[in-house]
Amino acid sequence: MMKMSAIGWKIMNRVISKLNIEHDGFLQGLSGVVHVGANSGQERMRYDKYGLNVIWVEPIPEVFEKLKSNLSSFPNQHAFQWLVTDRDDEVYQFHVASNNGASSSILEMKHHRDVWPEIDYTDTIMLRSITLASLFEREQIEPAKYQALIMDTQGSELLILKGGGSLLNNFQYIKAEVPDFESYVGCCQLADINAFMKQQGYAEFSRHKFASGPGGGSYFDIVYRKKL
Questions:
Q1: Which of 29, 63, 142, 187 has the greatest number of C-beta atoms within 10 Å?
Q2: CA-to-CA distance for 142 and 208, rounded, in angstroms?
């Protein structure tokens, strides 16, 4: 079999992403979502289409300012600048990625470049953390208004979930971007989050692969639904 070039893999990943772009139907009928790992709020128009109240959480100061600007015409969408993990008031080294911060993480990259070889870290900043439960309390967020949690935090998804406490009982749906390989050092992988979500009373609702690397590893958007 002919080996695919890096450009070939990039094109294939774009095709996969395009084929799976409309898979957020679970949002229909909900009143609100919490999106941790907001970046610049790329999904704001999609959420607005569903008439959702949105809590965005983004830790990088420069990206957060862009997020606030992007949300200026969406009165039901609000941004908060926090780094969410499983600990309150812990200082982390946060690595800022070259793709406008989208692949930034508290974790070092490992096999991430197998899928996106052009992405690297360009800076490291120190950030103080908060748990999801403490964030809701501190910002006086009403849990009942938000039935879905969406995470795009480059490997720290399990930490966020573990810091959610009883909030996990309030969400009907939880969506995460997760690899099935060690993209970041010690990151949350597909098998890890599947096991945790099962323990919390959630079942897999949908799965969409949106990127793959020549080494065989893939990235997925996974949606879990709370069992009745």
A1: 187
A2: 30
